[in-house]
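User: Show me a protein chain along with its predicted structure.
Assistant: Here is one chain, sequence first, then structure tokens.
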Amino acid sequence: MVALVVLAGKVMLVALTATALALGAVQAGGGMSRYASAARTVEDRFHDESTDMDEIQKARTEGMCDAVVGTAKAAMAAQTIASPDVPVNPVGIGFTDAMSIAQVAIEQHEGASAGAEADVGAGTTAAAGAGGQSSAGEVAGEAADTLNGPGVGIAVSPDGSVPVEQASESYHIAWYCRDFGWEPIYITTVERFRASEMAYTYPGGGIDPDVPLVKVPLTGAFSSEEEARKSVYGMMSNPRTGGGIYAGVPFADIGEKTHSLEFCGGLEWWQ
């Protein structure tokens, strides 16, 4: 009798954890969808003066927050499913693997609507009561199976990038030259970003051969140059061309900084 009670308790715990994983995935997928949608809106309506850019930026920020929070929830649930006897440690060993597992679940639910989230909750509750396996449980099982799969150990961000420190040299990243006049932006391979270079070898870097180039990353590392370009351009506002001695030079703002786009594609991305 006691054994049956313990077994029932474990089944309920697994069902609840699977539900938490699925709901976290739905939250993360919805957040990423809103984040991407806001970026596309900026791209499509940047030259429309009636567009409220502040509202778009707010939606973009809220989408990213949901993506991060949902990914963390899914990761902790996946960690519990993969190692049920180990206490969840959101900053310790195993969480990076759990984040990778969470990506599998998020891909299953990306773009899910609020109605889909309700369906997941209802479906998993019914399955727990019947002793069957829910769709959330199936997703959790598939996610847990990836523990020994390729690529585990690299934490993928909600925008699809990976940390530069863990990225392949063939990946791409957007960065800028610190202490240059307009701090021009470049989009290069991670290999070039990591390379030690001197400032004078770049336009605007002066003539002193002993001054090192300071490279400041703007994005994570992406598998393609186009993804890195979309990511950094999604951060920008107020695209324009300069005047006077800077006539024709493309500029845009990221936060309170103005950057030259002369070496990363100009303004064509908005046109």
